[in-house]
């Protein structure tokens, strides 16, 4: 149970007032407000193993942040249950707070007017971290995030990249087992993004932290996550590995081969369709839901035909996710 | 107990101010100008008369100047530090208050304590300078000084809760600008910052008796200048203490409601 996240049938419904159009409508809304229920999260079930990094993906408004808020204990679910490192977060918020760290995008938890190190010292006191332990952890984070070059600067004078690196360190200073990152690298340049990814990889692989990450950056997902959960309109659409997602939504690969014998008539292979043939030049594509991955297709084609040249085009993860989001919208 | 370890949160305001020397210069300049103007105004008002509303010139000047000094106790540039409830609600960073093992009400109290102690350092320095320069009169006796100190402490406690109520409004309205303007005006008027309360008509004084504002400043300053005799101090201190208890209970209830609101809206 230590460091794991268990989510079962988690739901959250918000009740909002409908604003009717026009002056008369606004007046009617004032006198007789009409409430509607918005299901931000509906029956979501998934789990994250200790030491695993899971990417929680979905388009804007899908329910990712609401899910994270419930898991951090700052939002109570309407139904279902969640356990984070063995604690029900919304029932034991303070106990949960000691087990988790969180970064919410560009929203900083650092004290604006103080040098960063003062913020770290305040958090050390709040979380009751022994001084020696705090110093050792700060050194480790400095080695990975290069914090010492700006940690004596006031937060208000930091660049976005510097501030987010400090926020990451601040979220992990008390050595939490579970870390929630809600779009932590949004707006950052590629160099800092890579530094942050390296840091997260280190925290998962070397420190064994469980990380739940939401992001719209597919490069980040590819570099960091082996498993993803895709939600849309508050519902879980898919829970699987990147390969599974590619198989389900990314069947847009093509293999272009040049056959040694120009007179060979190419034929389809299991799960591989023959898209077109022009003399020795042949183009294959996936055929049906059981289609192999592009690498499996390459192997099958080379084994079946004598080829002099072969090339492949594979949809990148961004294309795959675009397909997944569109399909998810259709399914919802 | 995280609250005992989190004393460093009380240093946020003083440290933030020390890291911003222009703010200190501006505060010093403003305080000096305010004291000089108030001193000149009240001396001018008393130029033609020896005593008004039961106060002589020195008592009136002492009251008015000490009211200006006491304002420094909570009149800090809180917005610059981006650590007001209003700003946290606006930027969505209030979630971090609920993500720490330190309850938000304890964090708020620690921050306010640091702020008031820092303001006290300013007020005491200003008082010492004004006393040395003969701008304010010393207390009549050690007993008056002692009762004044206790009353001032209770007054600041009441002020802390009044400010807290205004901040807590943000949890429900997201904005507290209008309430803050009303508070500042009511606080200054009803506490006797603009003018000692006994210059106002009886109905006004009766009305202000039902509000907590005069407990913040008017009572301790009136004790200091001798407008309220020591024989009546016990009753006045009891009223101040009653406000502390009443507001403590009320704000505790509002903190509970605010937490429910945060966890139902998600910050």
Helix segment tally of chain A: 11
Low confidence ranges of chain B: none
**Biggest sheet features of chain A:** 6 strands, mixed
Silhouette of chain B: globular
Shape of chain A: globular
How many DSSP E strands of chain B? 2
- Biggest interchain interface, per-side counts: A-B, 36 and 33 residues
- Which band does the percent of strand residues of chain A land in? 25-35%
- Mean pLDDT of chain A comes to 88
Q: Which percent bin holds the helix content of chain B?
A: 55-70%
What number is the mean pLDDT of chain B? 86
Beta content of chain B: under 5%
CATH homology superfamily name of the largest domain in chain A: P-loop containing nucleotide triphosphate hydrolases
Number of structural units classed as domains of chain A: 2
- What structural class do you assign from the helix and strand content of chain B? mainly alpha
CATH level-1 class of the largest domain in chain A: Alpha Beta
Assembly category = heterodimer
Spatial separation of the terminal alpha carbons of chain B: 25 Å
Order of helices and strands of chain A: EHEEHEHEHHHEHEHEEHEEEHEH
Question: Explain this structure to me?
Answer:
The complex is a heterodimer of chains A (332) and B (267). Chain A contains eleven helices and 13 strands. Chain A is α/β, with parallel strands linked by helices. In chain A, the strands form three sheets. Chain A has a six-stranded mixed beta sheet, with helices on both faces. A four-stranded antiparallel beta sheet of chain A has the order 11-12-10-13, with helices on one face. In chain A, helix 9 packs across helix 11 (317-331). Chain A is globular, with a radius of gyration of 25 Å. Chain A starts with a strand and ends with a helix. Chain B has one domain (2-265). The radius of gyration of chain B is 19 Å and the shape is globular. With 267 residues, chain B is an all-alpha fold. In chain B, strand 1 and strand 2 form a beta hairpin. Chain B has a two-stranded antiparallel ribbon. Helix content of chain B is 70%, strand content 1%. Classes of the chains: A alpha/beta (332), B mainly alpha (267). The interface between A and B is medium-sized, with 36 and 33 residues.
């Amino acid at each position: 149970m230590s460091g794991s996240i268990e989510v079962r049938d988690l739901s959250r419904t918000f009740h909002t007032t409908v604003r009717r159009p026009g002056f008369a409508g606004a007046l009617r809304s004032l006198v007789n407000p009409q409430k509607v229920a918005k299901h931000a999260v509906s029956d979501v079930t998934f789990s994250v193993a200790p030491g695993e990094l899971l990417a929680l993906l979905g388009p804007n408004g899908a329910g990712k942040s609401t899910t994270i808020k419930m898991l951090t204990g700052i939002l109570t679910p309407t139904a279902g249950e969640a356990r984070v490192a063995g604690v029900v977060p919304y029932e034991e918020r303070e106990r949960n707070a000691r087990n988790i760290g969180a970064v919410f995008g560009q929203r900083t938890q650092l004290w604006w007017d103080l040098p960063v190190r003062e913020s770290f010292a305040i958090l050390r006191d709040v979380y009751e971290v022994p001084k020696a332990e705090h110093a050792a952890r700060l050194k480790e984070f400095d080695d990975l995030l290069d914090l010492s070059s700006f940690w004596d600067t006031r937060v208000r004078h930091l660049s976005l990249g510097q501030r987010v690196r400090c926020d990451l360190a601040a979220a992990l200073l008390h050595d939490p087992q579970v870390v929630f990152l809600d779009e932590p690298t949004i707006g950052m340049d590629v160099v800092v993004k890579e530094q942050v990814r390296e840091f997260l990889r280190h925290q998962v692989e070397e420190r064994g932290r469980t990380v739940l990450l939401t992001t719209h950056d597919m490069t980040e997902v590819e570099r960091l996550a082996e498993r993803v959960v895709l939600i849309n309109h508050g519902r879980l659409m898919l829970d699987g590995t990147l390969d599974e997602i590619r198989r389900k939504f990314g069947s847009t690969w093509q293999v272009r081969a040049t056959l040694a014998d120009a007179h060979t008539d190419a034929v389809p292979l299991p799960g591989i369709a023959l898209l077109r043939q022009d003399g020795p030049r042949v183009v294959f594509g996936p055929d049906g839901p059981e289609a192999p991955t592009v690498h499996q297709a390459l192997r099958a084609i080379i084994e079946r035909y004598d080829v002099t040249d072969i090339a492949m085009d594979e949809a990148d993860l961004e294309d795959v996710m675009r397909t997944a989001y569109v399909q998810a919208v259709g399914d919802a | 107990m995280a609250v005992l370890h989190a004393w460093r949160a009380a240093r946020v305001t003083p440290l933030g101010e020390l890291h911003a020397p222009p703010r200190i210069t501006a505060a010093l300049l403003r305080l000096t100008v305010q004291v000089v103007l108030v001193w000149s105004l009240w001396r001018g008002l008393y130029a033609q008369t020896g005593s008004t509303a039961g106060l002589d010139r020195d008592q009136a000047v002492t009251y008015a100047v000490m009211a200006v000094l006491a304002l420094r106790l909570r009149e800090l540039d809180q917005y610059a530090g981006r650590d007001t409830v209003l700003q946290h609600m606006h930027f969505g960073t209030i979630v971090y208050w609920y993500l720490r093992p330190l309850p938000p009400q304890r964090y708020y109290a620690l921050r306010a304590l640091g702020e008031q102690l820092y303001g006290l350092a300013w007020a005491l320095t200003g008082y010492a300078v004004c006393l040395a320069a003969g701008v304010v009169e010393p207390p009549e006796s050690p007993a008056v000084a002692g009762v004044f100190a206790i009353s001032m402490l209770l007054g600041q406690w009441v002020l802390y809760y009044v400010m807290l109520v205004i901040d807590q409004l943000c949890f429900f309205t997201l904005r507290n600008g209008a309430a803050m303007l009303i508070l500042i005006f009511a606080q200054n008027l009803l506490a006797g910052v603009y003018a000692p309360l006994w210059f106002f008509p009886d109905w006004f004084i009766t009305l202000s008796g039902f509000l907590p504002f005069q407990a913040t400043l008017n009572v301790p300053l009136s004790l200091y200048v001798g407008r309220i005799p020591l024989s009546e101090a016990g009753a006045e201190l009891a009223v101040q203490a009653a406000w502390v208890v009443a507001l403590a209970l009320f704000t505790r209830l509002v903190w509970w409601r605010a937490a429910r609101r945060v966890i139902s809206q998600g910050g």
